[in-house]
Amino acid sequence: MFLKKIKFIRMSRKLLVAETSVEEEVMATRLSSKNLRGSVLEICKRIAGSHKSQIISACFHGPRVCGYADEKSDVNVFLVLGNFRSRPRSYLKPLNGINVFILAVDQGAFEGDVEQGLLGEFAAEKITVPYEPLINKEYLQRQEVKAKKRIVLELLENIVLEFPELSRELLIQAEYFMYEAMMRRARLFLPVTYSFLNMLRRDLRRKNVESMMKGYSKALDELAKEDQITFSNGHIKITNNLMNTVRGRKFRLPLFLKSFQRAALLHILSVLPKMMRPLAYDEEVFIRSNRGIQAEELVFQLEDPKKYLLIPTPFGFATLSDKTGIEDFVRKAVPAGEVLDMRIEEVGGVLNSVYLLTFQRNREEQKVIVKKFKDWYGFKWFPLALWALGTKTFAVMGRSRLERECAVNQFLHSQGFPVPTILHFSPRQSLIFKDFIEGEKLTELIKRIISRKREEVTEEAALVREVGRKIAEAHRLGVTLGDCKPENIIVTNDGKTFFVDLEQATRDGNGNQAWDVAEFLYYSGHYASPVSPANAAVFIAKEFIMGYLEAGGKRETVRKAGSARYTKVFSIFTPPQVLLAVSNICKKTGEK
After folding, report:
1. pTM, whole model, 2 decimals?
2. Nearest-angstrom CA–CA distance, 307 and 222
3. What is the pLDDT of residues 275-303, one digit of tens each?
4. Which superfamily does CATH assign the domain made up of 440-591 to?
5. Cβ–Cβ < 8 Å for 51, 107
6. What's the CA gap between 109 and 89, in Å, rounded?
7. Cβ atoms within 10 A of the Cβ of 455, count?
């Protein structure tokens, strides 16, 4: 619809120029020309006078400022008027063989657009891209920083909502905000994409990016003073203060919903043909040098903003736009010139695909676990959701689980907690590459405890206590592990325990930590015989709880794990006598 409208306007544009232009010799059209600036200023004064308004500010914008204009291009002017009792209006005035296109907006409406996007950012946009002040430079710069500060804050809030765990670990490059603002605007109002692509073409990009980033840098400095962000080695991190503010709101409206209102306003403004004139020229300029690109492909020509959202890994920064596949990862890991000799074998995974990747690096065998995150739909997910209904909320989408695994793993690793090192991650491929931990699953130790005499399993019992300590340590750090079944814990040959599955983990303070305790205890009891006494399961529970409390775990958490809220979830596959006995141990411990 927008494209058809632009083509109609482009056809009528020549008629407008023919009606209003005069046959005079073309004068110098550079914006630095004093004569041009003086003549434009006189036109602005006449417009203001005709409406009994005063000029608050004015600036040049568009092709002549950004560098892709020709001699006949319009001079685009943005005019802010006080006491301008009118909706945004445009004026086309002839001036010595060229045309001056002026967009006039009331001061109150403009500032409302800057602070809240009340005009669909149709006016505010003029100062978020390169512009050259004509009148009242200081006013324009203040409004520019205000507009960009709001844009940055909205995008930061959206990161917290979209990546609730990963946002804690993300390093953000400042350019992200500029490119993401462009991308979102282009998706809502396609015609403006031509303007962005023209100003970002190879020979003009550096100058125009530097011009736009000055305002973003000032906005970021102000947000840092307000404890919304911090700077870390040239990158930006979101503060806990901002995260808590966003998560504490009762009504959290994602940015894309806010944008609908702006898109509707843009649509209303677009029905005014003169308003679309600058965009029609931008389309002409772009098409002249990019004839093969279709309209539906335009947005994909813009820079991908997620290239500027980073996570540090041993192989350098990974970005949220990363598309690294398994072979690409090996090429990164293996020194240049060495032959790629790799093997891939599937090693498990019901709800995900898990592979063991083996290759040679520096003449040594390297083993890496590759985890492919799939969305949980269909019969595999349904029973799990049904069993835990009202007790535990699971992350279902593959991207959410990848985000949790990456973010919480990075945090725990930084605290010295025993988790595998994440070597790389590829959001676009839904892959995580982790160190392979050599050892046996804790499941095997649990089975030995259940099948042997107590005096024969003292080492195994000590390891169960150690697992209790480690889970308590995670809880003290504000982490709920989410899926700490014995099969997700690896015991190495030197007796260390590693937690290898964190896709359901969260950093939610004192969240559902009782789930971690309940899952470990009842899942361990799952391996007991349905017809045998519950003695072995009780022994395991006592050893685990001892370690958990020794390391600072809360008795209240243990008591909650014994409640019916949790026993109902595991009643399907844990023998009833085991379930009852372990539940009683938890309740008695919590009462002491």
Report:
1. 0.82
2. 24
3. 677 777 888 888 887 776 766 678 888 99
4. Transferase(Phosphotransferase) domain 1 (1.10.510.10)
5. no
6. 12
7. 6
